[in-house]
Amino acid sequence: MALYGVSVDSVYSHQAFSKELGGLPFELIADFERKMVDAWGVRRTDMEGYDGVPRRTLFILDPEMKVRWRWVTSPEQRLPDTDQVLAEARKLGPADAPGKRVRAAMRPKKKR
Question: Rounded to two decimals, what is the model's pTM?
Answer without folding.
Answer: 0.67
